[in-house]
Design a protein that fits this description.
The complex is a heterodimer of chains A (322) and B (118). Chain A is mainly beta and 322 residues long. Chain A contains two helices and 21 strands. The chains are: A mainly beta (322), B mainly beta (118). At the A-B interface, helix 1, strand 6, strand 9, strand 10 and strand 20 of A face helix 1, strand 4, strand 5 and strand 7 of B.
Chain lengths: 322, 118
């Protein structure tokens, strides 16, 4: 029974959290798009720090650029995220992350820029090792999680509240379910990832808004070029449904379909240190009505992995030698 | 034992996320005389000027838009909204000094950009 306590608690918070009042609203942390990993083995800890720069500048109407607007805008952000994962047992991994925006800026020539900064959202995930066969090199890892709007949402400059688009936090809870399937074949690995996110209604004194549900589907191709160097090629489809505002009015100019290509290079150092560099390049964009579209993003992630069982075994063997 | 850590993490995150600001003190010495917009309704991306007239000493002004953006600060600001903010939007003006604050709202209708239905 004890092993199900975590799961029961998460379900409790999913239900309980849906009635909570949020501070306000924004799109929150960006999706960190590097290759998804299966559940961790028992007593393995991973800690990683990611940095991401993203830039958007062009408006889209449906699937083409829209150039009729009498101005040009640019939106960019510098973001970092700390993620910690721990294999509680061989079947359960707990992951948590916390985002921080150094800046989240909207620049419009001739008009003041808007720039927010501060803590974004935090998240807690439970990843399960539903199926793992080392002989077949096949693993299936479903995940459930909650995003918490712990960061800055109602940020003001000179007593004027910044627009939602540059507020660091999403202002509302998000509930996530994902599944990751990985299959190794020789020096390559193929993987599939699917994710669903439900955003809670954001209801505050000044704001009433609900982001549309988000679906993500990704296919990964991993190739181990050398012993320490790996390449991941990812094709990812992201779909966001339309948002709703006061009186449950559906916002026509919201929601999108975007297909990204994300190449990734990973280098494994000694002592289980890893560094990954990757980029998000949209290859197809469709936006409902007129919206600013995603431009590109480049990211870097440094990861340290600690296997406590291996560490203990190492210490014990050292004691025997001594 | 491990489950306790999960419970602790959930409770900590939830309490932090649910924290609310305290309500401001209402001032009886400040009165908002008018709050108006130069253009209303306004087209998406078009700028309208919003101004407030208030009586009181050492007044400061704060602005919040539930959709769209406030440009500038003080007793006269500009407002515009992108097409995803089309609709009836509420702009709240807060006038305050050391005695407390009062606030008023103005509704601005933002209609979609004309080329949107191409």
């Amino acid at each position: 029974m004890a092993r199900y306590t975590g799961l029961l608690l998460l379900i409790f918070f999913l239900i309980n959290g849906s009635g909570a009042r949020a501070q306000c609203c924004t799109s929150g942390n960006p999706f960190i798009s590097d290759a998804e990993q299966p559940a961790l083995p028992s007593r393995v800890l991973t800690t990683s720090l990611a940095y991401r720069y993203s830039h958007s500048g062009s408006y889209y109407l449906k699937d083409g650029p829209f150039r009729e607007l009498p101005f040009r805008e640019a939106a960019y952000s510098n973001y970092t995220e700390l993620q910690i994962g721990y294999g509680v047992t061989n079947w359960l991994t707990v992951l948590t992350d916390l985002g921080y925006f150094f800046n989240k800026t909207l620049k419009n020539p001739g008009i003041d820029s808007y720039s927010g900064h501060g803590l974004g959202d935090a998240a807690l995930y439970l990843k399960f090792n539903a199926y793992s066969n080392s002989r077949l090199r096949l693993s299936i890892s479903p995940t459930i999680g909650v995003k918490f709007p712990v960061g800055v949402f109602d940020q003001e400059v000179d007593n004027v509240q910044l627009p939602i688009s540059v507020q660091p936090s999403s202002g509302g809870y998000g509930y996530i379910a994902t599944i990751f399937v990985s299959k190794g074949i020789g020096k390559i690995a193929l993987a599939g990832f699917s994710s669903y996110e439900y955003s809670q209604l954001i209801e505050s004194d000044n704001f009433y808004y609900k982001y549309g549900d988000q679906w993500i589907g990704a296919l990964y191709f991993n190739y181990q070029v050398w012993k320490r160097v790996g390449i991941d090629l990812q094709l990812r489809y992201e779909n966001r449904a339309k948002s709703t505002r006061e009186n449950n009015e559906i916002i026509d100019a919201s929601g999108y379909h975007v297909i990204f290509f994300t190449p990734q290079l990973t280098y494994a150092f000694k002592h289980n240190w890893y560094i990954s560099a990757y980029a998000d390049v949209p290859i197809y964009k469709y936006y409902n009505s007129i919206q600013m579209s995603f431009g590109y993003a480049v990211s870097l992630r440094l990861t340290k992995k600690i296997d406590f069982i291996a560490l203990r075994a190492g210490r014990n063997s050292m004691k025997k030698i001594n | 034992m491990k489950s306790r850590y999960i419970v602790f993490a959930f409770v900590t995150f939830s309490l932090w996320a649910c924290s609310k600001k305290s309500d401001p003190t209402l001032s009886e010495s400040i009165k908002i005389v008018s709050l108006s917009a130069s253009i209303n309704p306004v087209k998406a991306y078009e700028i309208t000027e919003i101004s407030v007239e208030a009586t009181g000493e050492n007044l400061q002004y704060g602005w919040v838009a539930n959709h769209g953006r406030i440009l500038g600060n003080g007793k006269v600001v500009q407002y515009n909204a992108c097409t995803s903010c089309a609709g009836h939007n509420t702009i709240t003006c807060r006038v305050f000094n050391e005695t407390g604050e009062v606030s008023d709202t103005i509704m601005i209708r933002v209609y979609p950009y004309p080329s949107e239905n191409k």
